[in-house]
Amino acid sequence: MTSVLYPDLPENGLIVLIGASGAGKSTLARTWPASQVLSLDGLRGMVGDDPGRQDVTADAADVLKLILERRMARKLNTVIDATNVEQSVRVELVMAAKRHGMPTVAVVVATPLDVCLERQGPRPDNRRVPEDTVRAQHQARVHSHQQLAAEGFNTVVFADALYRLEPFLKRLSQVREAELGRDGSAGLGDLLLVRRFFGSEVLPLWRWRPGSDLVTGRDRLAEIRLGQQSLILAFRDDVDGEGDFGFDVLLPCPFDAECAGQAWAPVYSVTDLYKALTGAMDSDPDIVCTVHGDGVDDDQDDDPEGRADLEAQYADAVA
User: Domain ends where: 140, 175, 210?
Assistant: First the structure.
């Protein structure tokens, strides 16, 4: 397969996405590195704590212009993720690029109006654009196409003519190879599963406890700590006796406030971590205590796959 990446795009320039709300501009913008994308919604969020807050749009636009000017002066590729359907907005963007001798590209995202309107439905209230506004944006986009060259754009191209999947997948592949250590780096190693369960934001807070391997030789203890708050977790690589893996979090025993054992419950996401920290999981039905089991006196095994083995090792690990 012949590799054709950028038939109409300069290596470094100003790329202005033009389209109504719901056209798919942000999806297209994500095919470039995040550092190269100036998103008006994102800047609204930075200025006003809400990307859908319209009363801060003017301030967000001022920030965008300031950053754009600095990036153009450094000859850095920059993508503008906004509707950009107004001629006055586009002219200011083009002028900023021309001042620094940077080429300009208009990328028209010509999504049909009915699709743009349909995409408003699933959006949260603060991000949903009124129908009359979307219609006006779409009409302005249609009328703008014939005048883009006269506004100073060096290149005008429709989004569906671009070859963006290949560079997008290449960048994701490079990130993945680095995480796996295949690029010669250390990679994420035993944090790969942690990220899969709880997200990359948790990784800087995660510490495996030295010497916390359990008697099975497989399970390990870890701590998430920030300031005075922390959680203790156990990685279980055979949690169901059939080779499945997961994490348990340490909770207060729900059966006896004076219990000297430890109570453990499975956690599957960062939402579960939040619930565990705030006490919302203290009555979780899946809690198993190393002393009381699951609290049900039914002569069944209340301590599946050695969960009680955590008691002695926990004492060593947190000492």
Answer: 175
* Angular region, 155: left φ>0, alpha ψ -120 to 50, beta rest: beta
Q: Is residue 186 part of a domain?
A: no
> Count of H helices and E strands in the chain?
10, 11
User: Which residues span the domain enclosing 207?
Assistant: 192-317
- Whether residue 198 lies inside any domain: the answer is yes
Q: Are residues 171 and 209 in the same domain?
A: no
Tell me the whole-structure pTM to 2 decimals.
0.77
Averaged in consecutive runs of 10 residues, what is the pLDDT profile of the chain (319 residues)?
56 96 95 96 93 90 97 98 96 98 97 95 88 96 93 94 91 91 87 92 91 53 94 80 80 87 90 96 89 68 47 47
- Asked whether 311 and 259 are in contact (CB, 8 A), the reply is no
Residues 6+ apart with CB under 8 A from 192: 179, 180
Statement to judge: residues 284 and 199 lie in one domain:
yes
Bridge partners of 221?
234
